[in-house]
Amino acid sequence: MQSDHLQLITATVLSIGGLILLFCGIFIDPQGQIHETLLVAFGETATFSGALFGIDYVYKKRS
Fold first, then answer.
1. How distant is the alpha carbon of residue 8 from its chain centre?
2. How many C-beta atoms surround the C-beta of residue 37 within 10 A?
3. pLDDT of amino acid 32
4. Domain residues for 32?
5. Angle, in degrees to the nearest 10, between helices 2-27 and 36-62
6. What single DSSP character describes residue 30?
């Protein structure tokens, strides 16, 4: 049961973090050495991973 909650927390953090990085990559001018395309790519990956974790959690709870 504890691992289910950890999976849900991980999915939430990945999704929110990915969305934050997507917005940062699109709307904030780069001031350091991290290019905006890297932020967008990692944001998309994190959001997708969070969505997969969340979908898996929902189907585990249904059965």
1. 12
2. 10
3. 66
4. 2-62
5. 150
6. -
| Closest to 54 measured CA to CA, from 16, 2, 1, 21 | 16
Give dist(CA 49, CA 14) in Å, integer.
Answer: 7
How do residues 15-38 score in pLDDT, each as one tens digit? 888 888 778 777 877 666 667 777
Task: Judge whether 25 and 39 are in contact, CB under 8 Å.
Answer: yes
Token pair in block for residue 60? 């585990």
Q: 39 with 47: CB under 8 angstroms? A: no
In this structure, what token pair is assigned to residue 57?
Answer: 């959690």
Query: How crowded is residue 33: how many other Cβ atoms within 10 Å of its Cβ?
Result: 6
**Neighbour-count burial of 24, counting CB atoms closer than 10 A to its CB (0-12 exposed, 13-18 middle, 19+ buried):** middle
